[in-house]
Amino acid sequence: MTRTPLMAGNWKSNLNHQEAVVLVQKLAWTLSDKKHDYAKSEVVVIPPFTDLRSVQTLIDGDKLPIGYGAQDVSSHDGGAYTGEISAAMLAKLGCSYVVVGHSERREYHQESDQLVNEKAGKALAAGMTPIVCVGEGLEVRQAGEHVAYTLGQLDGSLAGFSAEQVAGLVIAYEPVWAIGTGEVATPEDAQEVCAAIRGRLAETWGADVADQTRILYGGSVKASNVAAIMAKPDVDGALVGGASLVAEEFAGIVRFYD
Ligand code: PEP
């Protein structure tokens, strides 16, 4: 099975709705200038909630072949949950992806695997693709327990999902020590854990599901290091933070095969 590489840019808490439009326009122009073949890598932007409507209007209006999604979703369907954004609201805005369980949510908002599981379930039920983030911190890595730890998060985050549901989501392996630090994991580090994740998907949901599910690497990916990481057989794309805020740099990541 051929898995189309996915390059997703997580803007985090950066760029207002006007800046968002400028960045998506620049990205689209840069990729069009380079005659990017979207069959070679799918391109997705993940702006803050407040930018989504403007990004939707631009992408729909100009028929840009760029997908978009949200950085989080409520575990509730709606109602008296001040500040929460439901999956139905995001789906209505045309989001096709939702990041769940990013390490910054896990760390600063104490999100547990169970909550991540509920959020991923809501995204799936609304017809969106969750990008489920897992990955170890520095102490776990130094103790050599990174594979077991990450698989534990994976098990908890996907608990109770059917084979069909798992085949419809994306996993992002993001070692916390490599996020925003400039310290990228080696291609071998990325491959080791991505292969272990695929192995666990095969054990739990079968080889076909494991073969279909895309597994991304995230952590200080740049245009200059992406090709070596993408050369690894179990890495199907990248979740990109800082480098996705600069159109030329993100376009370089998208075109990892150049
Ligand atoms: C991220 O936030 O998911 C991420 C990988 O960030 P960065 O690329 O900046 O390390």
TrEMBL record:
Keywords: Cytoplasm, Gluconeogenesis, Glycolysis, Isomerase
EC number: 5.3.1.1
Protein's cellular compartments: Cytoplasm
Residues making up the signal peptide according to the UniProt record: none
Annotated catalysed reactions: D-glyceraldehyde 3-phosphate = dihydroxyacetone phosphate
Catalytic center residues: H102, E174
Name used for this protein in its record: Triosephosphate isomerase
